[in-house]
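Figure 2 data, in text form.
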Amino acid sequence: MNRLPTTLLTIVIAVLPQAGSAAASEPLASEPAVVTDLDLPFVYTDWQQYTVEDGLPDDHIFAVEVDGPWVWIGTEDGLARLDKRTGEIRSWKEEDGLPWRVVSALAASPETGELWLGLFGGGLARFSGGRFDHFHQLNSGLVNDVVYGVCVENENIWAATTAGASRYNTRTGEWTIYTEKNAPMEEIWNYGCSYADGKVYLGVWGSGVLEFDIETEHWKDYLDPDGEMEIDLYRDDGIVHVITTGVSYVDKTLWVTTYFGASRYDGRHWRGYFQKDSGAPSDFHNAVQARSADEAWFSTDKGLGQVADFATDTWVVYTTDHASQTGQAVITRGDRVLETRTIPPNIPHNYVLWTEIDGDDLWVGTSKGLAHASGKGYFSGLRRVSDQASKPESEASETNRGGS
C-alpha cells in the first residue's frame, strides 16, 4: 500500500450540478477539506503519578485493568486496586493470600466480575469474593506456569504462556491446550492475548499473530511475508516482524507490536511503523492498546507513543525528563515535528510496559510507577487551531513550536 502523504492530506468532495441549472454558477455545496499544520490532536496535559509512597506494593507495573470504579494493577511484588472515586489503594501480597508475587497480566470478566491474574512463574489465579483460586501445571490443564497474557472470551479464559496457550471453560471446567501440535505455532512462546468479534488473537514470539475463530475453531496466521528476520524487506506487506509482543483488535482493525516495530491491518491493507519513518518513539514495543481504527497507544522502552490520527499519520509521544521535572508531548506528522509542548511530568518512567484506555482517560504502567491521564476535553482525530492566542492562556504558555 502506498504511504499517505506526510505533509498534506486533501479530501475533495465534488457535487456536480445538473446541466443548465442555476446551481451551475453557484459555489460547490462542499468545499475541499484540507488538513494543515494547524490541525492538531488532543494532548493529555493533566497527569497524576502513583508509586509505593502512595500505597502500591511495587513500582514495577506489568499490567493494568479497569473494571468500573476499580483500577487493578499487577506489579512485580503484588496486586493492587485503586478506587477511582476516593483514590484509595489496597494491595495484596503473598502473605495476604496472593498465590504468586509477580502479577504479569490481568483480565476482568464482564459477565461475572471475576478478576483473572496471569502469574509470571506461578500460573493463573482467579480473584472473586475476596478469595484467590490458584491454577497451575500440577492441578489443572494450564500448559505452563509462566503466563504473559490473559483474556476473557465468553465463558472461557485464555492464558498465553511460554509453552503454548490454554483455554479454560469456567462453566464445565474443561481445559484445552494449543501448541505446535494443533495450532500453526512455529514457536510456542505466547506473549499477548486479545478477544473481539468472535475471534481470539494471540501474539506469539516467532510465529507472528494467530487468529482463532470461535465458531469454526479454525486458525489463521499473520506472518511477515518476506521471511527476513533482520529487516523488513518489502514495506506494508504484512506484520513487520514475527517476534510479536502485543495485539489489540478494535473496529475490525488489528494493531500489532513487536520488538522491531509495529503494524496496523484493516482487513485489506497493512501499514508498518518504524522509528525512522514515523512518529514512533522506538521500535521496541512492549504492548499496544487501540481505542479505535484510527487511534492506538504503544508502550515502548523510550516513552508512550500514540497514533492519534491514522489517515494523516499524526503521532503524539509522551516522555518525562526527571532531571528537570518536566514532561514533553511531541506532535509529529510523518517525519516532521509539528509541535513540542512542555507539560508537567507525565509518566513516572519512559520505560512503559502497559497502557489501559478508560473512556477518555488513560492509565499507564511503567517500570517506576503508575500514571493517570485525565481526558477532560478529549476529542478524537484532529481539530483546527487558528493561532496560539485561541488556546487557554495556561496551555499557550506551555507550547513551543517545533522545528523540522
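Caption note: The radius of gyration is 23 Å.
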